[in-house]
Amino acid sequence: xxxxxxxxxxxxxxxxxxxxxxxxxxxxxxxxxxxxxxxxxxxxxxxxxxxxxxxxxxxxxxxxxxxxxxxxxxxxxxxxxxxxxxxxxxxxxxxxxxxxxxxxxxxxxxxxxxxxxxxxxxxxxxxxxxxxxxxxxxxxxxxxxxxxxxxxxxxxxxxxxxxxxxxxxxxxxxxxxxxxxxxxxxxxxxxxxxxxxxxxxxxxxxxxxxxxxxxxxxxxxxxxxxxxxxxxxxxxxxxxxxxxxxxxxxxxxxxxxxxxxxxxxxxxxxxxxxxxxxxxxxxxxx
Length: 286
Known about the structure:
Layout: H1 3-17, H2 21-36, H3 40-57, H4 62-78, H5 82-100, H6 107-122, H7 130-148, H8 155-166, H9 174-195, H10 200-216, H11 222-233, H12 238-241, H13 243-257, H14 266-277
Helix pairs in contact: 1-2, 1-3, 2-3, 2-4, 3-4, 4-5, 5-6, 6-7, 6-8, 7-8, 8-9, 9-10, 10-11, 13-14
């Protein structure tokens, strides 16, 4: 038995032997630490036992039940059990609304988890996917709650902006393309202010701006993508991790460069820039 398995067994046993709010609360904290270290399945096991104990021994402690439901949803989301995650987040939201009303700012995080799960399940920029419209409605509601609580300059709000951007299509119709670019730019500015100009979070946001601009403006924002690449250069392994994205970006660049009226050789500029750094970044892995 591994040390993680032993830890899980110990936590579960402690819940069974002493199912007090303190014991279950401590199990919840330990499960979150397991999840944060990438042990999502062990975290799920602990949280399911904690939830069952809450429902049997403390059914009136609705607030704490909602917390555990949400944390369990995060583990299911990480395990790609999307339907289970959505069901758990919806239960947590229903309890919080019942306790504090639909405008409680603390609902924002719960709503954001639900919306991001829906986007993650269907994939960024899925065409004609009905879930994206619902995800956008949920994420925009979360954003309004952050705004009402004066919490727009937070990591949670910045992630929410990114989530909203991904619900809009990159290609058409024009109003969706423009909205995606607008939210992407807003997220990039927010992340740069929060994490600094050399953070990978900022790089990811800038790359999203660059990609969104391809179809919103009729040409790429090469300054944004070159800035993103420069940031990645300063983080070991970041360029290689994003190589697949670079190749996809090059493909979309080729579509733009081949369009009527395109005067700049965008693909040439992009390839020249990356080849000067590491030619393997654009090489076909096959």
